[in-house]
Amino acid sequence: MRIYEIINKKKRNNTLTAEEIYFAVNGFVDGTIPDYQMSALLMAIYFNGMNAAETTALTMAMVDSGEVLSGLDLGGITVDKHSTGGVGDKTTLAVVPIVAACGIPIAKMSGRGLGHTGGTIDKLEAIAGFKTSFSAAEFLAIIKKHGLCIAGQSANLAPADKKIYALRDATATVDSIPLIAASIMSKKIAAGADAILLDVKTGNGAFMKNLADAEKLAHAMVEIGEGCGRKMSALITDMSAPLGCAIGNALEVREVVLFLQGKRNPLAENLYILCEELAAEMLTLAGHENAREAVQKALASGGALQKFMSMVEAQGGNTAYVENLAREQGGGEKILAPESGYICELDTEGIGIAAMLLGAGRKRKEDAIDYTAGIELKFARGSLVEKGQVVAEFFTENRDSIAEARERFLGCITFSQERVAKSYESPVIARIGG
Q1: How far is CA 110 from CA 80, 139, 145, 252, 386, in A?
Q2: Are 392 and 335 spatial neighbours (Cβ–Cβ below 8 Å)?
Q3: 125/422 Cα distance (integer angstroms)
Q4: Which are the catalytic amino acids?
Q5: Are 189 and 59 in contact (CB under 8 A)?
Q6: Computed from CA positions of residues 14, 18, 20, 24, in that sequence, does the dihedral angle turn out positive or negative?
Q7: Which residues of 406-430 are buried (b: 16+ CB within 10 A; e: fewer)?
Q8: Which one, of 44, 276, 300, lies nearest residue 176 by Cα?
Q9: Coil, strand, or helix at residue 2?
């Protein structure tokens, strides 16, 4: 078998066998297949796509390139979730303790943010002392004792994906649905969960800007998971407005803690609704009866908050810092509305970039984060504001960044004199699988 023949076969839009795909992935990982030939194969896949069997084979080749956390033995079905990323998406921080409070143990591996999207690990590391790196034995010990743990992706899980993704990033082949699906699902399957919930974002703040592409990606990932023997469900959710009012790591942790304490901001209902929907869907995948009622009970009883604080303590975080964070915050740079009207459209990605400019995110993987930086919105889509009214507060240790971030932020808001629908309705657009 030769890589040249495999490249030529896919270039001619023919179907690759599982053996050919494994040969290419293994050869690239061990160095016998050079970058330039793997780049050629990726470009052929980019233009000609892959069918379900090919995409599943690519996924499993990446899974088998490293460690697999199989047989977690956590006392029942294990459920994982994955979000394709967005602005203000802190749902994992709330959903994991809600589900754990309902008796379902959660072994969650998450990633860091890059560009306009935030990462769950960055948000948690805003908590003083919070540890996200564990050995497999430590990870499982925390879950068995406390019922939940959120850790960073192990370097030993699907190492082929990391190497292939770096090449995709350099060769303009990132935005290929089969390659995206295989990349996401290889890490989820290697993490060992029996059931997986996918939160696939669509809208101007998501990577999948239109609904058709989001649905294609969701279907592709559900097919992969089911082909690998996992229970699967995907929710297509709206990312044409930030989730909640907080954008930035410590600010988002605070918003979640307030939610778990039962203190709901009427402007952040899209966040609360989505957290409840995701938690209920995860419980349903785990075979839990009366999932929605269980979610409401976990929130109302304080059980979800207790699980969150238990996780913080178990992972070395300072619980006093979290409690202080939940108190009233102030001292931000006030951003005033330049005109009066209803806020009708938002450039959500642009708002995420404004937060990144303040220091809340990274332009490059090696950039440092200001965990206190970010934006606190004082409106939701559909809000009526008056000229000169405070529409946001900016937080940053770099005062020099405020002018550029303000200009970017205000350019992301469109005002209308006509009343527009508020963004408080459910952000769930469609459900696939399950």
Answers
A1: 10, 13, 20, 16, 40
A2: yes
A3: 33
A4: 82, 161, 168, 183, 187
A5: yes
A6: positive
A7: bebbbebbebeeeebebbbeebbbe
A8: 44
A9: coil
**Which two structure tokens, joined as six digits, stand for 66?**
């490293």
Check if the beta carbon of residue 374 is closer than 8 Å to that of residue 250: yes
Largest CA distance in the chain: 69
* Rg of the Cα atoms in the chain: 22
By three-state DSSP, how is residue 365 classified?
coil
At 164, is the secondary structure helix, strand, or coil? helix
| CA dist 425 → 175, 266, 268, 303 (Å) | 30, 12, 11, 26
pTM of the predicted model over 0.85: yes
Q: Exposure pattern of 252-277 as b/e (b: 16+ CB <10 Å)? A: bbbbbbbbbeeeebebbbbbbbbbbb
Render pLDDT for 144-182 as a digit per residue (tens, 0 to 9): 899 999 998 777 888 999 899 889 988 999 889 999 999
Q: Which pLDDT tens digit goes with each residue over 88-112? A: 999 999 999 999 999 998 988 888 8
The H-or-E segment that residue 43 falls in is: helix 35-48
**CA angle at residue 24 from 18 to 30, to 5 degrees?**
130
Give the span between the Cα atoms of 88 and 380, in whole angstroms.
13
Residues of the chain with pLDDT > 70, as a percent, come to 96
| Angle separating helix axes 52-63 and 159-170, nearest 10 degrees | 120
Which single residue is written with the structure tokens 């809208």?
A: 203
Q: Are 33 and 72 in contact (CB under 8 A)?
A: no
